[in-house]
Amino acid sequence: MLSAMIKKELLLVLRDRHALLALFVMPAIFILIMSVAMKNQFSTNELEFSLYINNIENSKLSQELISKIQEDKNILLVTDKENAQFLLEIPKDYSPNTTTALKLMVKDALKSNQIEIFKSLLSKHILNIKFGMFGELGELFEVKYNNNEAIPNSTQQSVPAWIVFGMFFIIIPMSTIYINERKQNTLSRLNSMNVSILSMTLSKSIPYLAINQIQVWIMLGVGIFLVPLFDTPALEINGSIGAIIAISLALSVSAIGVSSLIAVSASSSEQATTIGGILNILLGAIGGVMVPKYIMPESMQRIADFSPMSWGLDGFLDIFLKAADASMIIKDVAMLFTFGLIALIASMIILQQRINKGL
């Protein structure tokens, strides 16, 4: 009986083309769009600024300054104003002994921190010229990075984020089928045949467990093989495959639990779709799917820790960035399993009560 019920559930999902689009095509498109769109924002490469210089003074000093700027690998001198982010004018009478300031115009819509970085780069060369008699200033700081602080690139952030979001989208097909069966008295007939609530729940959970696992591996494939075709870093998986299986199974249990709870609580498929869609977006927004957690304020990061999507995302990021194995993400896996099981048990209790009342 259980195998027949699972087969029936799978057939119903596979016939629903809109559900398949939401489960497989939507997250794949989001991964592509967000990985490509944010690749510069997540880039860890050195900054490069384009600069056009209008050398009115044209003295030995100004030529020396231009020569120093040309040697800077962070500044690209261009000969066309239209292609420059900054315009620098070296005015008449500019010399080490005068207080005449250089004129700097910012052309592009740059952030204030980028402008400050450029001014710092330029200041070093100006100081080297003005105080050249004391020798080169050289690098003012020796900067070292904390190796434990792992920052993802755009693909490493987008792939797990939209995997997690896509997995929770089973709320819509699962609740729709559940409610249709309730209206058609399918659940009542199963109950009259002494099919237990546990069997009904398992028959609906197992197909979506399989669908979620297929989702995960297809989306990983998109990150590894498809995203690099758009001049964007490919997804690198540094952790163990076992850890990916563990976190994806736990996420799936969590998503199925929430979906079951909404399906048995809602009175109509429209209500379930609305509640499910809003809940999915809210969990994604506070869980770091829309905006990476590490750029959120500390107060928002504490709120994000309450979202199951955040637990799943943290687990995937640890696998991709810190080469985590299953033991290193056991906390995230345990929280997701516990959350999912509690939601499933609650949904079974509600379903039993509704069947006792004649649905």
UniProtKB/TrEMBL annotation:
<feature type="transmembrane region" description="Helical">
    <location>
        <begin position="241"/>
        <end position="263"/>
    </location>
</feature>
<dbReference type="InterPro" id="IPR013525">
    <property type="entry name" value="ABC2_TM"/>
</dbReference>
<comment type="similarity">
    <text>Belongs to the ABC-2 integral membrane protein family.</text>
</comment>
<dbReference type="GO" id="GO:0005886">
    <property type="term" value="C:plasma membrane"/>
</dbReference>
<keyword id="KW-0472">Membrane</keyword>
<feature type="transmembrane region" description="Helical">
    <location>
        <begin position="275"/>
        <end position="295"/>
    </location>
</feature>
<dbReference type="InterPro" id="IPR051449">
    <property type="entry name" value="ABC-2_transporter_component"/>
</dbReference>
<keyword id="KW-0813">Transport</keyword>
<keyword id="KW-0812">Transmembrane</keyword>
<protein>
    <submittedName>
        <fullName>ABC transporter, permease protein</fullName>
    </submittedName>
</protein>
<dbReference type="InterPro" id="IPR047817">
    <property type="entry name" value="ABC2_TM_bact-type"/>
</dbReference>
<keyword id="KW-1003">Cell membrane</keyword>
<keyword id="KW-1133">Transmembrane helix</keyword>
<feature type="transmembrane region" description="Helical">
    <location>
        <begin position="333"/>
        <end position="351"/>
    </location>
</feature>
<feature type="transmembrane region" description="Helical">
    <location>
        <begin position="206"/>
        <end position="229"/>
    </location>
</feature>
<feature type="transmembrane region" description="Helical">
    <location>
        <begin position="20"/>
        <end position="38"/>
    </location>
</feature>
<feature type="transmembrane region" description="Helical">
    <location>
        <begin position="159"/>
        <end position="179"/>
    </location>
</feature>
<dbReference type="Pfam" id="PF12698">
    <property type="entry name" value="ABC2_membrane_3"/>
</dbReference>
<feature type="domain" description="ABC transmembrane type-2">
    <location>
        <begin position="115"/>
        <end position="354"/>
    </location>
</feature>
<dbReference type="GO" id="GO:0140359">
    <property type="term" value="F:ABC-type transporter activity"/>
</dbReference>
